[in-house]
Amino acid sequence: MIDSIQTVYHPMVTSAPGSVSQVRECTGHFMRIAKIKGIATVLVGHVTKEGAIAGPRMLEHMVDCVLYFEGERHHSYRLLRAVKNRFGSTNEMGIFEMRESGLAEVSNPSELFLSERPLGVSGSTVVASMEGTRPVLVELQALVSSTNFPSPRRMATGFDHNRLSLIIAVLEKRMGMFLQNQDAYLNVAGGVKLDEPAVDLAVAVSIASSFRERPTQPFDVVFGEVGLTGEVRGVSRAEQRVREAQKLGFKRVILPEKSLKGWTPPKEMKIIGVNTVSEALSAALS
Question: How far apart are CA 205 and CA 211, in angstroms?
């Protein structure tokens, strides 16, 4: 374990520790030792406030695997993500909770993220997102309020801002919602970051729920990709998402009609397949 690579220096290199030449030379030495001796070597590198590796980025190109250990200051859990892996998948995520005895694995992250979810309020929707091969249920919260400023605000925490603007444009054009004089705020509860297209439909339902002041059903799970024409596109691994919702006691799932092919839904769950955003809003806000 080398903690950290930015503080290690080679005496034959005249530059200061943390410079490009020092990091390249030291990393090369550690790689040769690891491959000759057959020793697994972990290099710890600091990151900037934006999340990038501090100093030379060529460190990512030299190593075999890059893991990001993330965490919010105001939450007790930490996320371990793989962003590069020469020998495996990069779509995996590990969730750990910081306790007095140290880091402990969270075996059921969905239950953790939904532990403080309010019931029967507008703007709150549960989405089934895939983090690698693991389905995770997360709460989305939206708040739509009128504004006195000429240009309304669009703010998103844990979700892509441009994708939020796109979904709002679809709701305006295809659903007839007048949101041009409304501020729209979206928050992924728990500080999780969601970046897959399957979250789109839940975002649209949350915004529409807050705008119309109509609460969603407390035991609904929503997922699906939204197209620019208002259609709902199919997503992968729908069966795993539904099974996760069933395990946590949810009764109904709203998902794309195209994602129902090739598997048999559980009889205990009510499955609603939709083809358009209009159908999804009618089912979720009825």
Answer: 10
